[in-house]
Amino acid sequence: MTAAPGRRSSTFTRLLRHGFTDPGAAERLLDLDAMASVRDDPLLLDALGATADPDLALRSLVRLVEAQPARDGDGERADRVLLDTLVTAKPLRDRLLGVLGSSEALGDHLARHPGDWRALATYESTDLHPGVEEFEHCLADATDPVSLRVSYRRCLLSIAARDVCGTTDVAQAAAELADLATATLRAALAIARAHAPEDAAHCRLAVIALGKCGGQELNYVSDVDVVFVGEPAGDADENAGLRAATRLASHMMRICSETTVEGTIWPVDANLRPEGRNGPLVRTLSSHLAYYQRWAKTWEFQALLKARAVAGDPLLGEEYIEAVSPMVWQAAERENFVTDVQKMRRRVVDNIPVTEVDRELKLGPGGLRDVEFAVQLLQLVHGRSDATLHSGSTLVALQALAAGGYVGRVDAAQLDDAYRFLRAMEHRIQLYRLRRTHLVPEDQDDLRRLGRSLGFRTDPVGELNREWRRHAAVVRRLHEKLFYRPLLDAVAQLAPGETRLSTKAAGQRLEALGYADPAAALRHLEALASGVTRKAAIQRTLLPVLLGWFADSADPDAGLLGFRKVSDALGKTPWYLRLLRDEGAAAENLARVLSAGRLAPDLLLRAPEAVAILGDPSGLKPRARNHLEPEVLAAVGRADTAEGAVAAARGVRRRELFRTAAADLIGTYGTEESPAEADTGALVDQVGSALTDLNAATLAGALRAVVREGWGDQLPTRFAVIGMGRFGGHELSYGSDADVLFVHEPREGVDDQEAARAASAVVAEMRRLLQVPTADPPLLIDADLRPEGKNGPLVRTLASYGAYYRRWSLVWESQALLRAEPMAGDADLGARFMELVDPLRYPAEGLGEDAVREIRRLKARMESERLPRGADPTLHTKLGRGGLSDVEWTVQLIQMRHGWAEPGLRTTRTREALAAAHAADLLSTDDAQTLDEAWVLASRVRNAVMLVRGRPSDTFPAAGRELAAVGRYLGYGPGHVGDMLDDYRRVTRRARAVVEARFYDAT
Known about the structure:
The chain is mainly alpha-helical. Helices cover 60% and strands 5% of the residues. The chain contains 44 helices and 10 strands. Helix 35 links the parallel strand 7 (738-746) and strand 8 (781-782). Helix 25 (518-529) runs parallel beside helix 27. The longest helix is centred in the middle third of the chain and has 32 residues, at 460-491. The termini are far apart. Mean pLDDT is 91; it is low at 493-498.
């Protein structure tokens, strides 16, 4: 067969044409003496070319031929018998070469056990679809772990041969693998019993398969999940019987799991048992039931959904199945079912390396787990009233769900197709080396073999990737829709023809997904999606996805109700549904905003057209004061009256409040396209700055409107609004009032009394117009930080402020001025006011000891007197231990003592001052970080409470759903409210320790 130098032989060309990637090496293998009788056989060449990897198939065939003994049992040359049978018997040729071209591991097995090829030569009818009985017969001669492995591999050869030749489909192959596992567990238990006959005599032991083995959908290489049930035999002592059963179970697990000269079979995993690894390996039936009745979580019942007695005492196994089955199908009625489901619905990919997520067949987006979880959840929800759903097999259950109307038939068919393809990929990947993996390979040769094994021959790698991505996309698209589309069909009143969810079943599903009032939810769905209009059709497209986003929130009912209200208000506008349908982010953003609490939806429903903000990529960036104030003043200028002008300013404020709240919520929760903001302090700063700029612009507009109404272009006195407290510190929360001081200065030639009357009238009218009841939220002005407090005049001249501060000012007033900053009105007057108060808030050489003692005394008094009666001091965000007041007074004392020497401390913002104190070595790194963490956390809690409840509070809400919603905002998943409160107490306790050291004990 050797060609002349420089020329390729005809065999080389044929090999290349038949799919060999290294024809030269293949030609050399065929030239070996062992292959002499078949090297020119066209049937062999065609059969090799039909395999997944012709090169691998030929290499493994040559190894098998060379491993044959000189003579077989009949005295014939064994290698000649193998090759003659191979070329004359098509069933063997297809099976053997198909396996050799798909599995390097099974090729290795055949090289070690060269007679096992004969297991593929028979072609009996029972061989087409063997069950547990046939596999038990094949394993019957195994008497130790090594011989069991050899017999197991021999059985695996036949399963793989039927699989790669297409005799069985992926579901049948998985069922055969589960049946082989059942037979193997029985054989292993028999070996363990033979090794310890006394233990076997003292106990009854049943092996219950869970997971893929229990569901009869096992992979080639997978953990076999089991639980053990044991009882004493006859009159034996229970403890002694359980000890004997535990020894048998442990030995059985080792027989299957340990590595020998013939490798291992698969790990037997008993970690799904009650209490997991911390629980006893074997329990009595009554102990199992007591645990499941009292302690089990929803995921444990989900695991039991696939329970099947497979080995050991059959009566005990059946007793176990009969006892736990009712509990499985009643799991949806458990108190914490919704919370557990919400936890389970969150994909757990945190432990998958980023580089592997896109190659994960099982856990990645659009992977096998998405299908399996969705089917199992629907089984748990509806299986309590429909026994046809009681199946451990994913595909059988999916068919039953479609037949019962619980899943749309088209969706079920697409999901079935995708699941079969993904499982086929998984089977072929594992079959190659018989290793447990769910990762799609990266090597081109591996991808080529995988693609060819699945029938892609023209462009194996390209076709495989395209088909894989297509099926994964189908799973991603249908995963959530699977839950919700039948809900719409149940209420949409469409043309008959497909079985639909009953009202009861739809209500059960909504309840399981977290809806507290399923009947109301169904009414909303009917109102939105019923009919044959274009609007209803678009809603039916949008709602399955929206319902999933609502269900991810703490209050799905509120989200759906809000969506209905917005849709009712905007449904006739041409752009609303188009925006949600065509702008992917808009629909998700709207769902997040509507289901996160009351504040943002209330703001939106007052002017629903603001929903357009959610579809604009730049629309969720809060607008700065230099953009807001011109818009507000322009709106004021277009109004005919002061009332109309201030109403216009308040309308802008309401829209921008919604923008700020929406940006906060979406930044906090994140979306599918944009991850959540990791820096929570940045979110707090963003909200504080946005609300400050917004209120300042609104005050400027109100001042312009009032002055124009009463005095035309110019007020008889210069007038300025000075922000104080959180307003001046740019640290407003959603529920904060605007703390201010009003200052004026008579213009030249204007009588002081006239100027004072004008200034007072302006203040009174501004306050009135900004809080007149309207559809827009009021802006409450608080001037209690003025000289003499509530007993002093609302507005003073600059000279009057100077006289008061020189003569009467108390240390707390100097402290309050640390946050003073001009916000509206005459800029020059505001600047001169700041020049006036700077020496008071940053006294030269710092505060005297008397002043320091007075500040500490005031703080201690406030702690003892101002905390509301009955409030938990560990959870009060403002006055509680380590809360806002603690941090701010500590920072402000540092500012007043050192601000004269450290320019960085001369700021109205707490976090900036804290950073400056650290930079000036006035606070250690740990102390500064501790105080900053507590301040940010307390600020976030206040913002969360206002967003959730729609009204301000300094404490965590008492209502469970509201508390859960606050937890979601703070990053805590369902069922972790206790962790949230514990973390808050821990963070603020550490902050209080710093306050004790730096505020009360500092020298």
